[in-house]
């Protein structure tokens, strides 16, 4: 496994690898990341992973300094997973002195939901991922479904900038009680950890109601909202029932959209997503209905 620091080293190490599936991460890896590594290995000659806690996607007062880091453990885990290349840049490797270029994503896909709670977050994500892709030139970019809005934003970056990479989405990986795996789960106290699976239960209820025929999006939102609000340790930020492509809030969940527009096939009729704070941890989860 090549572990490299600078852009030049990364470029050189990548050059000998053939087709590459690439998993960008901020480290403190868990089984969800490893499942993405596995997805990246399918159909590619090699797997590359980056580990970089990207300062530009954190707002003032957010957890950039506190974000959990354990590079030695991450590298050991990636080595056992058979990863070929790990790029661990410093801030100066990604944002050299004088760097003045940023990728800005306009419109609702970047300004609603996470974008509303974390202004500028997706510009930071779009900028760093564009730089990582520019240096590594991977064949496939593998992202986790848990960060659904990030997937939507990066899909639009890849399309708008004409980047030559296939975007591949890996499934959300869960603890046995349903909690979506996240590096930020480490912030949860014991009672908060016990309470957090309410997010998955609320989304499972949305799936059950959808299967039973519920299509009124406002009603769906209120079903999910009430379940989360019943948990005293959860401070709900938002519940959204939106178009999976535009993230526009829906009035009605229309199962026929995918029939009309084959481009949307497999992306579902509605994305139900939510965010809630449990003490220091702000957790996200989502489910796609009608995929
Ligand atoms: O999902 C993440 O961990 C980050 O947002 C990413 C894609 C690695 C960019 O910093």
Automatic annotation (TrEMBL):
Q: Which InterPro entries match?
A: Pantoate_ligase, Pantoate_ligase_C, Rossmann-like_a/b/a_fold
Keywords assigned by UniProt?
Answer: ATP-binding, Cytoplasm, Ligase, Nucleotide-binding, Pantothenate biosynthesis
Pfam family of this protein, just one?
Answer: Pantoate_ligase
Protein name in the entry: Pantothenate synthetase
Protein's UniProt keywords contain S-adenosyl-L-methionine: no
HAMAP family on file: PanC
Lineage: superkingdom: Bacteria
Q: Can you state the subunit structure given in the record?
A: Homodimer.
User: What does this chain do?
Assistant: Catalyzes the condensation of pantoate with beta-alanine in an ATP-dependent reaction via a pantoyl-adenylate intermediate.
For this record, the Gene Ontology CC terms, alphabetical, are: cytosol
Recorded catalytic activity of this chain's protein: (R)-pantoate + beta-alanine + ATP = (R)-pantothenate + AMP + diphosphate + H(+)
Broad enzyme group: ligase
Subcellular location(s) of the protein: Cytoplasm
Binding residues for beta-alanine, per the UniProt record? 57
Kindly list the positions annotated as binding ATP: 26-33, 144-147, 181-184
Tell me more from the record.
Answer: The reaction proceeds by a bi uni uni bi ping pong mechanism.
NCBIfam families per the record?
panC
Instruction: Name the residues annotated as catalytic in the UniProt entry.
Output: 33
Q: Which Gene3D superfamilies match?
A: HUPs, Pantoate-beta-alanine ligase, C-terminal domain
EC numbers, comma separated: 6.3.2.1
Which amino acid positions bind (R)-pantoate, per UniProt? 57, 150
GO molecular function terms listed in the Swiss-Prot or TrEMBL record: ATP binding; pantoate-beta-alanine ligase activity
Lineage here is:
Bacteria, Bacillati, Actinomycetota, Actinomycetes, Micrococcales
Gene that encodes it: panC
Name a biological process GO annotation: pantothenate biosynthetic process
UniProt pathway: Cofactor biosynthesis; (R)-pantothenate biosynthesis; (R)-pantothenate from (R)-pantoate and beta-alanine: step 1/1
According to its UniProt record, which protein family does this protein belong to?
Answer: Belongs to the pantothenate synthetase family.
């Amino acid at each position: 496994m090549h572990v490299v620091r600078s852009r030049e080293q990364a470029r050189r190490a990548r050059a000998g690898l053939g087709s590459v599936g690439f998993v960008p991460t901020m480290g403190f890896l868990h089984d969800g990341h490893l499942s993405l590594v596995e997805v990246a290995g399918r159909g590619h000659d090699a797997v590359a992973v980056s580990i970089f806690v990207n300062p530009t996607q954190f707002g003032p007062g957010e957890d950039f300094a506190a974000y959990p880091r354990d590079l030695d453990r991450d590298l050991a885990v990636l080595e056992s997973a058979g990863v070929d290349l790990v790029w661990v840049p410093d801030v100066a490797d990604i944002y050299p002195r004088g760097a003045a270029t940023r990728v800005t994503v306009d419109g609702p896909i970047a300004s609603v939901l996470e974008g509303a709670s974390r202004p500028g977050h997706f510009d930071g994500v779009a900028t760093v991922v564009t730089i990582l892709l520019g240096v590594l030139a991977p064949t496939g970019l593998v992202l986790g479904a848990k960060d659904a809005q990030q997937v939507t934003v990066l899909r639009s970056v890849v399309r708008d900038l004409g980047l030559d990479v296939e975007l591949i989405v890996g499934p959300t990986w869960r603890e046995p009680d349903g909690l979506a795996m996240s590096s930020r789960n480490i912030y949860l106290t014991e009672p908060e950890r016990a309470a957090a699976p309410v997010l998955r239960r609320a989304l499972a209820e949305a799936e059950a109601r959808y299967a039973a025929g519920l299509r009124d999006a406002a009603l769906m939102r209120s079903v999910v909202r009430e379940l989360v609000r019943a948990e005293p340790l959860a401070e709900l930020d938002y519940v959204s029932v939106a178009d999976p492509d535009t993230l526009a809030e829906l009035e009605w969940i229309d199962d026929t959209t995918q029939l009309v527009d084959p481009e949307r096939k497999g992306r579902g009729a509605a994305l139900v997503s939510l965010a809630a704070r449990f003490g220091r941890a702000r957790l996200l989860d989502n489910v796609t209905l009608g995929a």
